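Chapter review: from sequence to fold.
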Amino acid sequence: MHDTGPDGSFWPKISIVTPSFNQGKFIEETIRSVLLQGYPNMEYIIIDGGSTDGTIEIIKKYEKWLTYWVSEPDRGQSHAINKGFNLSKGEIIAWINSDDFYLQGTLKKIAEFFCKNADTDMVFGECHTINEKYEMVKIREVPNEFDLQRLITSDCFINQPSTFFRRRVIDDVGGLCESLEFSMDYDLWIRIGLKYKVKRIDADLSCFRQHPNAKTTCQSNNPLQYLENLKIQKKYGGIKQKYEYYRHIVIVSIKSWVRANK
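The token string follows.
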């Protein structure tokens, strides 16, 4: 890519953050998917939580192309991402987890979209779900338009790996809620949607990888993630009377899983 876009102006700086912890099996593909974008004005930050599985050796292979990286204990994924946000300087920000990856040309598509839509503060696109064998599980389809009411009351239809936002948004609403372990992105999208303009881009941008050790797809974690979603929906007025009923169902589900796996 040239240093300037079609209109002659410089491409906006994009900051990508990758939180990492013991994902040595996948992180090299994540790193390469960012660095090989060919985008001329990008910074890439990796925040590792002290991996012991060979991740550090992989990161060191690419450190001369990284803006910053560190490996040290942290307080979890949300804390690691927030650390990266605080270090970043881009006009546009996103994070990609260490077992997911971008499709080629993603950053150029995002930059062009933001440049053409100056009033837009967050953009989300399509995401492919794949398994460990790179077989397509599904395309995680999203609605044609951003629907805040649906987001609050129904489901998180926004694909995290395919989501980008302007720095002013994070400076205003804050980063991820560090008390949430699974649904911190869901909470952030609602906070942004309540104050800022969000649009969908009609483009395939990333791949989300399902595997046995993935935090959000691990069977043992599903009830806990669902419970976090319920708490978020209650917080923003998405559910009221039904909350305790659903909470009871989730807790029963968790207890049943614990008994079955003793």
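Two observations follow directly from the output. Residues 13 and 41 are 5 Å apart (CA to CA). The longest strand covers residues 198-209.
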